[in-house]
Amino acid sequence: MAYQSLRLEYLQIPPVSRAYTTACVLTTAAVQLELITPFQLYFNPELIFKHFQNCKYRYCRMLEEGSFRGRTADFVFMFLFGGFLMTLFGLFVSLVFLGQAFTIMLVYVWSRRNPYVRMNFFGLLNFQAPFLPWVLMGFSLLLGNSIIVDLLGIAVGHIYFFLEDVFPNQPGGIRILKTPSILKAIFDTPDEDPNYNPLPEERPGGFAWGEGQRLGG
């Protein structure tokens, strides 16, 4: 019974979020079991361009089920666009692990598209969703970590948000980011799920972070 419930919950995760989360869990498990080392996963331009080496669930899923619902191709294109920019910037700032920056990018885009959602950080700090990436960066700083990774994720997230949500709506603005038709043909489906149940933040009133839901709690 528990297995069936877990399997059903897993299959209900949107496809892109499911693939992303599965990849994160499998690579983490492989590192912990010492089947691979972190140095086989880090960003190495020489391995990528010469040897063709490829290598937070929550906000990824909320994006895919929220503003990207029914637009899987656009969601995949955001992944590709963000990954390309991070790879490009990583060449110049000597970053080799880009996973955290990618997560921060997802958090940034979600937070800007849900500006009225109230957040609660460990029961100590209440704020609106757009401040979430900066709160996470401040927390990293308090832990003694470098904030370069967080800044990279915020920068890439802001570039995407500006080009996709802001600039096209300005006087004389145009839509620069256009999802390739081949991605639409592969990922988009016209059928609407009649049993779809939206996440809390999509319902009137937003997500009830101030009612017992806490980050890190």
Q: What's the helix and strand layout?
A:
Layout: H1 2-12, H2 15-32, H3 45-51, H4 57-65, H5 72-93, H6 99-113, E1 118-121, E2 125-128, H7 132-142, H8 148-166, H9 181-187
Antiparallel strand pairs: 1-2
Helix pairs in contact: 2-4, 4-6, 5-8, 5-9, 6-8
Widest sheet, order of strands: 1-2
Please work out how many helical segments DSSP would assign: 9
The rough form would be described as: globular
Strand runs, count: 2
| Termini separation | 28 Å
The helix content, as a percent range, equals 40-55%
| Estimated structural class | mainly alpha
Beta-strand percentage? under 5%
Order of helices and strands: HHHHHHEEHHH
Radius of gyration: 18 Å
Main sheet overview = 2 strands, antiparallel
Overall pLDDT:
75
Please mark out the parts with pLDDT under 50 across 5 or more consecutive residues, or reply none.
Answer: 42-55, 202-213
Describe this protein's structure.
- The chain has 217 residues and is mainly α.
- Helices cover 55% and strands 4% of the residues.
- It has 9 helices and 2 strands; from the N terminus they run H-H-H-H-H-H-E-E-H-H-H.
- It has a two-stranded antiparallel ribbon with strand order 1-2.
- A hairpin with a 3-residue loop joins strand 1 (118-121) and strand 2 (125-128).
- Helix 5 (72-93) crosses helix 8.
- The longest helix has 22 residues, at 72-93.
- The protein is globular and about 40 Å long.
- 22% of the residues are buried.
- The model is unreliable at 42-55 and 202-213 (pLDDT under 50).
